[in-house]
Amino acid sequence: MPSIGPRLEHVVEPMLRLVRKRSQKAGLPPGAPVFVGEQKACEFTIDIIDYDAEKVSHKEGAAVGDCLPYKDTPTVTWINVTGLHDAEKVDELGRAFGLHPLIVEDILNTGQRPKVEVFDDYIFVALKTHALIPVSVSDDDDDEESSAAAKVGELDIENISIVIGKNYVMTFQEKPGDSFDPVRVRISKHGRVVTQGSDYLAYTLMDVIVDSYFGIVEGLGESTEELEDDIVSGPDGGTVRAIHFIRRCLVDLRRSVWPLREVLNVLERAESPLIAKSTRVYLRDLYDHTIQVIETVESQRDFVSGMLDIYLSSISNRLNEVMKILTIFATIFIPLTFITGLYGMNFKYMPELQWHYGYFAVLGLMAAVGISLVIFFRRKKWF
Fold this sequence. Notes:
Blueprint: H1 9-23, E1 45-51, E2 56-59, H2 64-67, E3 76-82, H3 87-96, H4 101-108, E4 115-118, E5 123-133, H5 144-152, E6 154-164, E7 168-173, H6 181-188, H7 198-233, H8 237-269, H9 277-342, H10 358-379
C-alpha cells in the first residue's frame, strides 16, 4: 500500500481490517456468529437494570445465565451487553432469548447499516452512535495531517443493537462508555421511564442517540466557522485537509442518520403489540428530530463544498497577486534590458561610447524609464 500520512492511518487501516474480517465469513452458512469489526472492549460484560414504578435494582457483571429469569418477569428489564468481540457469548445470549441467527449475525457485524426487523415476540433495531473526539498534537508532530485533525477532531463511530421484547430491552455495544448515562439517571431517580413499558425505554435510548447527533453537528459547525476564518486570512495545506476531515465526518453521519429515518417510520407504523399507542407519538417526534439532523447535515455539506470553492478562489487570487507583481517587475526591466543590450554590442563607431558622460547618461535614462513605468502602473492602480 502506498505511504500515507500518520493521521490518515487511523482511517485507512481500520477500513482494511474490516475488509479482511469480512472475508473470513466467505463460505460460512447464513447466520454464522462471526464478529466483524475492530475489537474496542477488553472484556465481555453484562449489566442488568430491572425496575417498575416502585423499585429499581441494578446488577453489574452478570453472566448470560443471570439474564434468563428476566425474560418473562412483569417488571421491565434493561440488559446492556458490552464487548461484541466475544461472539460465543453473544450467540449464547441470543439463543437464550430466541433471537433469529440472522439477527445475531447483524449484532456481531459492527458495519451493519441501520435497520429494523419486526418479529412476533421481539423487534430488532440497529443504529449508530457518534462521538467527536478532540485530537491533541505534540510540538514535535507538526505535519499538516496532524494539524488538520486537531482543528476538527476524530469521529468515533460505534454500532448499537437494540432488541425490544415484551418486558425487556437488550442493548449491544462495542465498548464501555456510552451516551446512555442520562437514561440510567432517569431510572435511578424514578422518572417517567419507570412508569412505562419496554417500548418507551427503547424510545428513550434512541432519543439520546439522536440528541447526540445534534452535538456532533454543532461541533462540526464550530470547526467549519473557524476554518472559514482561516481560509479568508491565510489558507494552507492543513486547512484544506481539515475541510476534507469535516466532509468525511458529515458523510459518515449522513450514512448513519439517513436510514434511521426509515427505521423510525417503520417502528411508528408497525402493527406490533410491542409498541404501545402512547409510544408511537414519541416515535413520531423522534422522527421529526431525525429529519432536522438530516437537513442540518445536508446544509453543512453544501456549506463545506462552498468552502472548498472559496479555498480554491483564495489560492487563485494569491497566485494572481504574485503573478501581477512578477509581471510588473518584468515589464519594468524589459526596456532596461533593451538599453543595456543596445549599448552592450560594443560596435566601434557608437558615438555614445566615446562620450565622457555617456555611462551616467545611460544610467539616468534607465532610471527615468523605470520611474515613468512605476508612475504609470500606480495611476492604473495595478499595485
